[in-house]
Amino acid sequence: MVIRPKQIVNGDKLSDELDQIDSRVISPISLAHVVFRTANMKPMLRFWEMFLGATISYADDTIAFLRYDEEHHRVAIVAMPANTTPRVSDAAGLEHVAFTFRSLDGLLTAYSQRKARGIMPFWCVNHGPTTSIYYRDPDNNKIETQVDNFENVDEAESFMMSSHFAENTVGTDFDPDELHQRVKAGESQKEMKRRIEIGPRLQPDLEADVRR
């Protein structure tokens, strides 16, 4: 059965609202924000403000909103009671949130700035489609900072359909300090973003240190 388009009259304009059961739902224009619940409000707020180079749009004892671009907020933090159950590392749910940089230089400069402030990553990996650096916030939520390795989506998808990606969907680890020195030395960022192929690789246990 096909549901016919509904006609909507808006002043002198007549528009058709396509509402067929076999059509795709209209996609949003962007992912607006992420919200964290925490029993460690002050440490979380300090961390995220520093981590993103963000501005606090509003904050009180119960909630905080942070922005770093044209949106009024990209991250919100909601205060929970002190006896709130901590997140279990092997529980189902959200894996991580990711933030994209314009260039490899930008990604690595932000890494060095965070390092100078005592914020260190736990994993640095070239996935193939992206060069990525992973962190944890004070509540052990995982954060990915990344740069796209290809000029456009078609090139990225072509790599993801390749035998190299099928063999290793995890990626190849790298040393961010070494890579940053190469960027500063003027090496081609396009070449540095090209993944070094290492053959098959299993998904690493990224929660091992949290469980200790």
From TrEMBL:
<feature type="domain" description="VOC">
    <location>
        <begin position="30"/>
        <end position="148"/>
    </location>
</feature>
<protein>
    <recommendedName>
        <fullName>VOC domain-containing protein</fullName>
    </recommendedName>
</protein>
<dbReference type="InterPro" id="IPR050383">
    <property type="entry name" value="GlyoxalaseI/FosfomycinResist"/>
</dbReference>
<feature type="region of interest" description="Disordered">
    <location>
        <begin position="184"/>
        <end position="212"/>
    </location>
</feature>
<comment type="similarity">
    <text>Belongs to the glyoxalase I family.</text>
</comment>
<dbReference type="InterPro" id="IPR029068">
    <property type="entry name" value="Glyas_Bleomycin-R_OHBP_Dase"/>
</dbReference>
<dbReference type="InterPro" id="IPR037523">
    <property type="entry name" value="VOC_core"/>
</dbReference>
<dbReference type="Pfam" id="PF00903">
    <property type="entry name" value="Glyoxalase"/>
</dbReference>
<feature type="compositionally biased region" description="Basic and acidic residues">
    <location>
        <begin position="184"/>
        <end position="198"/>
    </location>
</feature>
<dbReference type="InterPro" id="IPR004360">
    <property type="entry name" value="Glyas_Fos-R_dOase_dom"/>
</dbReference>
